[in-house]
C-alpha cells in the first residue's frame, strides 16, 4: 500500500450518477422473502447470507470461516449476493433526505479552478498533470520552463474517465515522455512513449508494467534511446498476469516489447517493490528495492547496464535523491528521524547530515546543495543545505497547517518549484530561489468558496501506553464544544504513510452545517519517524487501534462530541482500523464509513494477490506469536453475535488490485448476521472500479457525497 489510497475524506458526485455506476445488470436472485430488501415497519432488512461450515486449523486453533464462499467472485450465488446488497444499500441511501442538498453542495465545492499536480523538470521542460473539474481525468502537460507555452501531451478522457494515467517519466533532455495507462480501476499498467516535440505517439507499447501494490517506474538511458522499467513476468497467453515477481526490464525504442530483456530483479523477491531514482542531469539511476510494502529498501546503483548493491536492508533506507552527481540516501538505522548519507559506486557511505529535529520525508537537489522535507506530527517544513551540508535556512512557508508535495528541481539550478497545500489552502506552487531565499507563487487553485474562516485547533489524546496522540480539529466560527457536535474522525495508521494537512475541499459542506472534522496522527505512519512507524507494525499493531480510540476519547473529554454523534472514517489499511473499532468499541461510535478495507487478517496473506506484500507490515500468521496477536484483533473473527453494532457503510471496487473485494463481503455478512441493533450495515460494490487510485472525477465526488450523506443522516447534522 505504498501508494495506497490515503486521502482525508474523499470527494463526491451527484448521487444518481454515482449509484448508476454501482450495479451490473439485474441478476436473477432466489431470495428468502423475510430477509430480502423488504420493509418491516419502517426498517429495511438486508439480504440473507447463509453461514456454512468452512473452517481452518492454525497452530492447533480451529477458526470458523462461515462466509468463505463469498470469496469466489465468479460464483453465480456470489454475484447474486453482490447485486442484492447493492440494491439494499441503494434503497437505504435513498431514504436519507439529506442526500440531495449535500450532493449538490459537494459537487459545487469540488468544481474549483484548474488543478495541477506531479511537477517534474527535465531538460528545461516542466511536465505535470492538469485537470479542470468536472473533467473526468487529468491530462499531461509539457511547458518549456519557466515562460514557455503549455502543450497537452496526453489526454485520456476520450472514454469518459475509464482510462487513467498511472505515471509519466520524461527522458533526460525532455525529448521523450514515457507514460503509463490503466483501465477500469485495475491499475495494471501499459507503458507508451511520446515524442514531446512533435506530439507523435511512438509504436512502443509495453504491457505488464507494474500496477497495484507494485509501483510503476522508468529510468531512462543517458542517450535517450531506451530505458529500464518495472515489469511483471509476461503471462501465458489466455491467463491473467500474476502481480508478483516484478523485475526491471530494458526497452530500446523501436523494438517490440517481446525483445525486452530482464536486467535486474530476476528471482530477487516475490514481493519486491522497485522505486527508480534517476538523475536527469547525468542519467544516473538507482533502485530502491523494498521487501514488501512498508518495509525498508535495499539500494542499488546502475553502472552501464548492471545494477550493483550499495546498501542492504539493515540500513533502513526510505528515500533517496541524486545531488550533484552523488546519491544521497535517507537512512533510519540508529536514527529514528533519519540521517543522510552519500553513497559511492562501491557502496562506501559518508554521513552528510546527522539526525536532527523532524522526520525526513523527502530529499531534492538544489544548486550544489539540497532540500530536506521534514515533519513532526502534523507540522511540516523544508530546510535548505549547501554543498557542504551546512544549514542555510528554513524556507519561509507557513509554519503550521500545511504539508509539502512534489518538488521539481535539478542539481546546478538555484531555483526549485515546490508544491504544498493545507487544511484551508488549496494546492499552490511556489518558485523558491536558493540564493535569495525568496518565494514567488506561480500557480494556485482558486477554490469555489471562502475557506479562510475555518478554524484549526489541536488537542491531544493519550493512548493506553501513555503515548500522546495529536488530533487536529476543524470547525467553523461559532461552533464550539457543546458535547454533541456531529463529528467525523479520520486516520490511517500503517505502511509508513503519514496523516498530513490537506485541503478540506468539498468537505466544507460538512463544516458549513455545524459539523466537525478531526484527524488523528496515530502510530503506524511516519510523521514522527521510523520509531513511530515501528510501534504500529506486526506484534505492535494493537497500538494503532488504541491510539485511534484515544483520539476519540479526546474528542469526548474536550466536549466536542459524544458517542451518539461521533462517526469514524478510514480506507484500505484504514478500513482495517475501522473494523477494529467496530468490534473492539462498538458502543463508542454512532456511524462508520470503511472503504476498500481489510477485515479477515487470517486469510488475506495467502488468498489474494496483494496479501504477501503486506507481511513486512502485518507480520505472518505462520509465526505462532504473530498468529495469536492477529487473531486477537482481526475484525472478522471478532464480530460477536447479539452485539449492538453502529451504523456501517462499507465500499469496495470489483477490480481492486490492492485489497480483495471479498474482504468487504465477508465482514458485511458477519456484521449483518451478528448485530442486535436497528442500525444498517451496508455494502456498496462498484463494478467498474478498483481501489480508488486513478478514479474519475465523478466517482471521487460521488464517494464524498455518499459518505457525508450517510454521516449526516446517522449523526444528526443540522439541515442548512
Question: How would you describe this protein?
Answer:
Helix content is 17%, strand content 34%. The model is unreliable at 1-38 (pLDDT under 50). It is globular and about 65 Å long. It has 12 helices and 40 strands. Strand 19 and strand 20 form a beta hairpin.
Task: Give the SSE layout.
Elements: H1 15-20, E1 38-40, E2 43-45, E3 55-58, E4 61-64, H2 76-94, H3 99-110, E5 115-122, E6 125-131, E7 139-144, E8 151-154, E9 163-170, E10 176-183, E11 190-195, E12 201-206, E13 218-220, E14 226-231, E15 247-252, E16 261-264, E17 272-278, E18 285-291, E19 297-303, E20 306-311, E21 317-323, E22 326-331, E23 339-343, E24 349-353, E25 359-366, E26 369-376, E27 379-385, E28 391-394, E29 402-408, E30 415-422, E31 425-433, E32 439-444, E33 455-462, E34 468-475, E35 487-490, H4 508-512, E36 516-520, H5 530-534, H6 542-557, E37 566-571, H7 573-584, E38 591-595, H8 604-607, H9 615-618, H10 624-633, E39 647-653, H11 662-674, E40 681-686, H12 697-715
Helix pairs in contact: 3-12
Amino acid at each position: 500500500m505504498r501508494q495506497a489510497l490515503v486521502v482525508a475524506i474523499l470527494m463526491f458526485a451527484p448521487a444518481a450518477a454515482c449509484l448508476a455506476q454501482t450495479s451490473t445488470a439485474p441478476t436473477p436472485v432466489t431470495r428468502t422473502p423475510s430477509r430480502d430488501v423488504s420493509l418491516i415497519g419502517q426498517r429495511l432488512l438486508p439480504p440473507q447470507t447463509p453461514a456454512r461450515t468452512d473452517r481452518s486449523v492454525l497452530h492447533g486453533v480451529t477458526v470458523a470461516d462461515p462466509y468463505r464462499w463469498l470469496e469466489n467472485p465468479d460464483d453465480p450465488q456470489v454475484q447474486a449476493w453482490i447485486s442484492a446488497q447493492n440494491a439494499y444499500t441503494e434503497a437505504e441511501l435513498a431514504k436519507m433526505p439529506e442526500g440531495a442538498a449535500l450532493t449538490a453542495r459537494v459537487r459545487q465545492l469540488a468544481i474549483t479552478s484548474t488543478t495541477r499536480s506531479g511537477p517534474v523538470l527535465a531538460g528545461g521542460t516542466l511536465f505535470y498533470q492538469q485537470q479542470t473539474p468536472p473533467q473526468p481525468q487529468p491530462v499531461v502537460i509539457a511547458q518549456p520552463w519557466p515562460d514557455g507555452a503549455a502543450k497537452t501531451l496526453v489526454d485520456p478522457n476520450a472514454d469518459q474517465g475509464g482510462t487513467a494515467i498511472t505515471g509519466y517519466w520524461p527522458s533526460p533532455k525532455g525529448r521523450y515522455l514515457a507514460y503509463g495507462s490503466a483501465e477500469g480501476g485495475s491499475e495494471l499498467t501499459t507503458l507508451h512513449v511520446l515524442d514531446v516535440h512533435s506530439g507523435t505517439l511512438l509504436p512502443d507499447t509495453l504491457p505488464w508494467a507494474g500496477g497495484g501494490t507494485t509501483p510503476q517506474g522508468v529510468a531512462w538511458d543517458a542517450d535517450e534511446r531506451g530505458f529500464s522499467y518495472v515489469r511483471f513476468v509476461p503471462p501465458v497467453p489466455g491467463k491473467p498476469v500474476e502481480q508478483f515477481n516484478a523485475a526491471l526490464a530494458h526497452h530500446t525504442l523501436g523494438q517490440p516489447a517481446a525483445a525486452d530483456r530482464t536486467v535486474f530483479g530476476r528471482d530477487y523477491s516475490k514481493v519486491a517493490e522497485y522505486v527508480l531514482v534517476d538523475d536527469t542531469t547525468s542519467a544516473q539511476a538507482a533502485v530502491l528495492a523494498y521487501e514488501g510494502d512498508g518495509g525498508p529498501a535495499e539500494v542499488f546503483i546502475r553502472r552501464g547496464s548492471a545494477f550493483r548493491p550499495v546498501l542492504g536492508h539493515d540500513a533502513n533506507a526510505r528515500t533517496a535523491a541524486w545531488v550533484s552527481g552523488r546519491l544521497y540516501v535517507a537512512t533510519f538505522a540508529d536514527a529514528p528521524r533519519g540521517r543522510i548519507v552519500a553513497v559511492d559506486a562501491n557502496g562506501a557511505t559518508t554521513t552528510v547530515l546527522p539526525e536532527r529535529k523532524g522526520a525526513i520525508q523527502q530529499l531534492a537537489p538544489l544548486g550544489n546543495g539540497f532540500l530536506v522535507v521534514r515533519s513532526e506530527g502534523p507540522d511540516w517544513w523544508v530546510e535548505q543545505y549547501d554543498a557542504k551540508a551546512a544549514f542555510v535556512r528554513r524556507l519561509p512557508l507557513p509554519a503550521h497547517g500545511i504539508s509539502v508535495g512534489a518538488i521539481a528541481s535539478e542539481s546546478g539550478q538555484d531555483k526549485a518549484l515546490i508544491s504544498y497545500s493545507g487544511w484551508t489552502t488549496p494546492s499552490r506552487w511556489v518558485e523558491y530561489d536558493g540564493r535569495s531565499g525568496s518565494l514567488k507563487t506561480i500557480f494556485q487553485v482558486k477554490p469555489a468558496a471562502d475557506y479562510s474562516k475555518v478554524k484549526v485547533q489541536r488537542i491531544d489524546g493519550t493512548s493506553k501506553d501513555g503515548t500522546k496522540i495529536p488530533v487536529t480539529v476543524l470547525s467553523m466560527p461559532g461552533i464550539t464544544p457543546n458535547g454533541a457536535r456531529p463529528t467525523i474522525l479520520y486516520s490511517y495508521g500503517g505502511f509508513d504513510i503519514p496523516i498530513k494537512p490537506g485541503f478540506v475541499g468539498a468537505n466544507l459542506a460538512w463544516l458549513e452545517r455545524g459539523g466537525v472534522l478531526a484527524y488523528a496522527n496515530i502510530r503506524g505512519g511516519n510523521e514522527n519517524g521510523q520509531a513511530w512507524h515501528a510501534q504500529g507494525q506486526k506484534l505492535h499493531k494493537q497500538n494503532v487501534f488504541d491510539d485511534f480510540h484515544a483520539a476519540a476519547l479526546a474528542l469526548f473529554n474536550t466536549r466536542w462530541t459524544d458517542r451518539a454523534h461521533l462517526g469514524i472514517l478510514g480506507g484500505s489499511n484504514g478500513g482495517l482500523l475501522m473494523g477494529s473499532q467496530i468490534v473492539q468499541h462498538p458502543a463508542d461510535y454512532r456511524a462508520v464509513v470503511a472503504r476498500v478495507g481489510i477485515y479477515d487478517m487470517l486469510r488475506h496473506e495467502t488468498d489474494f494477490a496483494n496479501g504477501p506484500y503486506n507481511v513486512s507490515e502485518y507480520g505472518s500468521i505462520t509465526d505462532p506469536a504473530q498468529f495469536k496477536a492477529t487473531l486477537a484483533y482481526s475484525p472478522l473473527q471478532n464480530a460477536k453475535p447479539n452485539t449492538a453494532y453502529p451504523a456501517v457503510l462499507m465500499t469496495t471496487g470489483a477490480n481492486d488490485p490492492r485489497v480483495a473485494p471479498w474482504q468487504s463481503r465477508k465482514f458485511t455478512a458477519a456484521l449483518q448476521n451478528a448485530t442486535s441493533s436497528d442500525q444498517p450495515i451496508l455494502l456498496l460494490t462498484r463494478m467498474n472500479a478498483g481501489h480508488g487510485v486513478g478514479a474519475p472525477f465523478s466517482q471521487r465526488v460521488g464517494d464524498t457525497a455518499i459518505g457525508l450523506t450517510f454521516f449526516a443522516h446517522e449523526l444528526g447534522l443540522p439541515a442548512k
